[in-house]
């Protein structure tokens, strides 16, 4: 029974640790509460909770710098900044909203905003914009402001990420193409893609064009926009069974059969094919290239307006992060002061350029071009750019489009039937029949 | 007085555990049950819609696919996990040299977080550069794009699931084996029973409570599979790997239909409970 | 002859074990090798098993990249207390369910199991609300209003882990396999219910505590979802949140990701080696033999 002593000792230590821990846990809570009491007692000092997605140094550093400047200028407003990785962000924010602990100001994904905007949880910014005569009203790109508009209200200010055509100059050279001449039309894009694929032992080791086959609705929309089409309307009606859509998917499926497209999941952890040097061309946001530029050299990567569609359209897909205020905030004025500071010319420029986004103010063009000549292209993108159509049917339509795309790419259904069947299901779920 | 003490004492012993459990697990469970009868976007209050969610389930073909996949995943992982887990545990128990190293090799996959596991396997299964395909090529077999093929994606996910679960079963079986008195084996040896016979006559019956425990917990774990699917395939291609919990996640956090997600969770609960009760009957035959 | 047969048997056992062990360990070796590769190896189209150049500096980079000291401290505090507390409560309850007779025992037990069968994705929201409205904590009044309750404290990560259907179930199953003669003998000696637990069951629980301890430690240490939702402050983050942050920051740098993963898993690996020798000491047989 010698062992019993030892076990007993371990147990005793465990219990002591446990009791000590409970005390500590309680203390931590107690401290937090007394801290909050202090803040409330000195009534002028306000603390804003601010959550923003993205945990890359390229985002957190400029945001921290911005907050420091803001607090210096507004000594009675403190901003508590929480950065959360994108992939975890929507869960964290959703639960906080559900539990009544929404942060005062926060970032919001494009899909998140439009699928929840009708629930009246976000603050309409127009009264603040009018009261403070916010100069961004005139200076922001109209398309950028429009992205956060709904029923006459302004529910978010978009920090846009615009999808341009990106390509690998070294792969172009390898395929005998002019590395400084990207494809100008959709037909050229597909023709180049055929030439750029790399096949070894009958298997494609490098795709000509980066197209995600699972969760592929964003790539597909990028291409649809060039043909002047979309996958659903503002009233929620799916349009991904349109003639343009069927023709586009036909083309893509052919490309996949020819080994030009490597099937993959756009939400996979390893990033896109293009980011992994596994595709020669893609439609990607500028910020996603930062790491690749470091790995292979900035001179090997080309960046241009998307190719023209058959009607000459060049509309770029613009998603990004909305800056939004919670309707439940107790410090609306302070929150707006912060948002105004964030979107002020010089601050916006600082944050946007450091994180690889485009500063969405027209008056910043000169400064932006000074940074790099190719920024001309990026800035031009904003002249004709749009995101998802605002409608709470976004989630349902996206779900069924994804489904249809997969069924077509993996040939479990004929292309037209896949699109039509899923459009029917979307209509059924949205009660549009 | 003493009798009262003896009646109450068991309750006192389980009280701390039960209390915490009731507040943080069972109460939320009741809540989820209620939510399954509502339309609930999470950010707005829930709206009672009666059986609406359960009716919607009947016409949801993706849910049916997910249910099918979950069942297949269960069968496809529980068998290798329990079988290999038992074999390894018994072999390790026969006092082999270097046992610690073997045990660690088998258990360590279960320690690594599922995201890291998935990242590793994504590379192993990579269609062009992955070691698995390279090996197959070397042997002259046809290679496959494992995770991007509607026929092989689910089996591939199962292999990864089993790989992470075997260590768990092994540990449980190993500790179960410690509970079997050596005297039983000694007596059997004297009677001239072979090792195989001892295995079936002593080891298996004596491990019954442990086997029951594993049947229930591995079943529950299999039914709850999410991380692996989410990271390895995202449920694709064409929903060939989606599971109930993956659908719960999608409905709740991507489509803001937490009411529907709750109803899926309740169905999952009912099925798991049914299987557990069947097991429980088997497990408690020799109990107390 | 017998000896020969024995050695043949041994070889077969070893062969089977080595085969399984290699299959199990291979992906882990790949992880380690990946963590030591240079950046350029990932951009290049030819990928190899072993690193072309062994870059141990990846680990230094991974360690410097984020606030690991805080994350490790938090994870240690949460894990140690949660595991120690739950081991005590779970074995005590497991003993009660296995050996004591009381009304509603099986019913309560089944109810306990129910909690294991619901995915965290749906229970997280009610759990969050309960955490937020714990009375008297975090600025809350007696009705649980006004403050943040246990959110953003260690309590939110520790308290729910103290109980555990899994642990109770585990302990119960093991105590069921203990010979009943033990109890009978003890009862004759005048040992009460509690005494029997402390004098007989607990001393023989070495293997149980070791395996349950390992399983629980892994579960608490690797939990990502609950810390994500229940904590917001940087100062309260755990290693898994740190790892997720890291993955966001170096999304395509597999080498650094794997290095960070190895760093985060290292305490678990050490813990495994420390604990594992306990679950082979056959306490039961030695005590029965006297």
Automatic annotation (TrEMBL), chain A:
Leader sequence segment: 1-28
SUPFAM superfamilies (UniProt xref): Periplasmic binding protein-like II (SSF53850)
Keyword tags: Signal
Highest taxon above the source species: Bacteria
Record-given protein name: ABC transporter substrate-binding protein
Entry-linked Pfam families: SBP_bac_8
Gene3D superfamilies xref list: Periplasmic binding protein-like II
InterPro entries named among the record's database cross-references: Bact_solute-bd_prot1, SBP
From TrEMBL, chain B:
Membrane topology annotation: Multi-pass membrane protein
GO biological process, one term: transmembrane transport
Keyword Cell membrane: yes
Cellular localisation: Cell membrane
Keywords: Cell membrane, Membrane, Transmembrane, Transmembrane helix, Transport
Main location group: membrane
ABC transmembrane type-1 domain location: 67-279
Keyword Cell membrane attributed: yes
InterPro entries in UniProt: ABC_transporter_permease, MetI-like, MetI-like_sf
GO cellular component, one term: plasma membrane
Top-level lineage group: Bacteria
Membrane-spanning segments: 12-34, 71-92, 104-124, 153-174, 260-280
Family the entry assigns: Belongs to the binding-protein-dependent transport system permease family.
Protein name (database record): Sugar ABC transporter permease
Automatic annotation (TrEMBL), chain C:
SUPFAM superfamilies named in the record: MetI-like (SSF161098)
UniProt key word Iron-sulfur: no
Biological processes annotated in GO: transmembrane transport
Cellular component per GO, a single term: plasma membrane
Cross-referenced InterPro entries: MetI-like, MetI-like_sf
Pfam family, one: BPD_transp_1
Main location class: membrane
Keyword Cell inner membrane: no
Tree of life domain: Bacteria
Subcellular compartments: Cell membrane
TM spans (from-to): 12-33, 76-95, 107-130, 150-171, 200-221, 252-275
Residue ranges of every copy of the ABC transmembrane type-1 domain listed in the record: 72-275
Keywords noted in UniProt: Cell membrane, Membrane, Transmembrane, Transmembrane helix, Transport
Lipid bilayer topology: Multi-pass membrane protein
Coiled-coil residue windows: none
Family label: Belongs to the binding-protein-dependent transport system permease family.
Name of the protein: Carbohydrate ABC transporter permease
Taxonomic placement: Bacteria, Bacillati, Bacillota, Bacilli, Bacillales
